[in-house]
Amino acid sequence: MKTILAAYSGALKGTGSSILSALQDLSVAVWPCRSKMEKHLQVISVLQWVLSFLVLGAACTVLLIYMFCTDCWLIAAMYTAWLIMDWNTPKQGGRRSSWVRNWTVWTYFRDYFPVRLIKTHNLLPNRNYIFGYHPHGIFCFGAFCNFGTEATGFSKKFPGIKPSLATLAGNFCMPVMRDYLMSGGICPVNKNSINYLLSRNGTGNAVVIVVGGAAESLQCAPGVNSVTLKNRKGFVRLALQKGADLVPVYSFGENDVYKQVFFEERTYWRYLQKRFQKILGFAPCLFHGCGLFFGDSCGIVPYGKPITTIVGEPITVPKIEDPTDEMVDLYHTMYIKSLQCLFDKYKTRCGLKESDVLYIQ
């Protein structure tokens, strides 16, 4: 009897080991599929933002006009009437949605590159701030992910501070697109909008301005550490007028996610880029990333390169309603030095060499 029980016990143990082994093999087989699915979701999340930025506004404008020629004209008329009544909302703080800012899609967006947000100093909720974001890159992926969503935990890292990423005012003239942008706390980069946020919206506001703008986007390329800043003093003057502290922000890797085709000076295409920049405020860039299905092909999906955004030490700025040029130059020089120090301190931690330098144009 003991012999039989021992044999039966051994058989059970053998069966248990076989089951455990089978489960382990199954998990190994399933895990690559899960990892591949997550990668697909990351690509889709980034692609939807790129396409939204490129075509959503224009597509919705064409659709609205078309609807006036169909049986749905009443819906189009009602939306247009509401659009007219709501026209000034972007200039008056917008219509931020914490629900949209916390969408799961933004975590996939964050993990694709990945994007990281590094805090170096505390920010006081009883002050207002102007963040100078550098560099522009092609699509400002780091700026959008860190300040237009909660994917990197901005509100947890900077409690009491409400970021508002400033972008071209023309984006807020297009139906649907304007609402999509406002839901992320994005505002027009014009004087009325920024004045409202810094003077009529209480404290704890942080307006994020991509200082280099379109001119900087024309210079971006992988491995290039260059910012357009020497003659950009308007944001400093605004900070003095509103008594908002200046905070330098640098995103390592922002220029690495796309490759750009550069046109020589005095060529027709370069002339067109500069004309667009002067008239519309943005410069059309000829760029490419990787393909949607094959990583070694060309497409509009950005390369999955790490983007690390460093939020520097705030520069305390006094409130002067009519600052002199000398005062603006003083704080502009302080800002450049602070940005330079921020770059030099973190460059080796973010994959650059000690010999790499930041070029300020």
Automatic annotation (TrEMBL):
It is an enzyme of class 2 (transferase). Its main location: cytoplasm. Pathway: Glycerolipid metabolism; triacylglycerol biosynthesis; Lipid metabolism. It is found in: Cytoplasm, Perinuclear region; Endoplasmic reticulum membrane; Lipid droplet. GO terms for molecular function: diacylglycerol O-acyltransferase activity; retinol O-fatty-acyltransferase activity. The keyword NAD does not apply. Its EC number is 2.3.1.-. GO terms for cellular component: endoplasmic reticulum membrane; lipid droplet; perinuclear region of cytoplasm. Belongs to the diacylglycerol acyltransferase family. Keywords: Acyltransferase, Cytoplasm, Endoplasmic reticulum, Glycerol metabolism, Lipid biosynthesis, Lipid droplet, Lipid metabolism, Membrane, Transferase, Transmembrane, Transmembrane helix. This is Acyltransferase. One of its GO terms (biological process) is glycerol metabolic process. It is a multi-pass membrane protein. The chain crosses the membrane at residues 46-68. It comes from Champsocephalus gunnari (Mackerel icefish). It catalyses: 1,2-di-(9Z-octadecenoyl)-sn-glycerol + hexadecanoyl-CoA = 1,2-di-(9Z)-octadecenoyl-3-hexadecanoyl-sn-glycerol + CoA; all-trans-retinol + an acyl-CoA = an all-trans-retinyl ester + CoA; 1,3-di-(9Z-octadecenoyl)-glycerol + (9Z)-octadecenoyl-CoA = 1,2,3-tri-(9Z-octadecenoyl)-glycerol + CoA; 2-(9Z-octadecenoyl)-glycerol + hexadecanoyl-CoA = 1-hexadecanoyl-2-(9Z-octadecenoyl)-sn-glycerol + CoA.
